[in-house]
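Reopening this one. Same input as before:
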Amino acid sequence: MNKSLLSLFLTGLLIATTASQASAQAPAPTETKEAAYTRTITERAAKIVGKIDGLKAKDSVQVRDVIADQYRALNDIYEQQKSRKAALKAQPQTDATKAALAQVETETTAALDKLHPQFLKKLSRRLTPAQVEQVKDGMTYGVLPLTMNAYNDMLPNLTKEQRAQMLAWLTEAREHAMDGGTSEQKHAWFGKYKGRINNYLSAAGIDMKQAGIDWQARIAARKAAGTAQ
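Same output, byte for byte:
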């Protein structure tokens, strides 16, 4: 789908969340950089915790700290990756340095893959599976349900099997996006899997370009009629 409303919607979501994070991360004049970072990730985690249904009050602080610690651990991994890559790129580019850069990427992925299940295990000690799902959505800006709802609205005649496959891919995208170090990285994972979904639907005979045009027309008609989106 070229410039479909779904693509524009996700782009707008990226811009909004990035701008929101930028404003939230501006340190107070008297704060050290480390104190500002700690405040930012704690506030970010608290917002996620505040939306968890049925969370016991006695568990809220612990869950908040688990999420904040995860943000810090992810940042440490990406900062180390950034530092190592910068040092290597400052050297003459030989086969050895190129191999070393590739090794940095491999080790970064391995560190993320190790951290991911550890984080989920910590969450599961205090949260139900449904509550863990809410944390995952909170860490990825709710893109999974928003995107799935958009597809369902755009393509109301999808089969049960098609919806299940799309949800499975978006769920897989969310697992990767949770480990992203920036909003751009998180959205890039969903963009990758959205491309896979669009190819899958096109192969099933759905004209995604026309579906996007028709969807925009229905949304415009609903707005004109004053009905809910």
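So the earlier flakiness isn't reproducible anymore. For the record, The CA atoms of residues 81 and 107 lie 9 Å apart.
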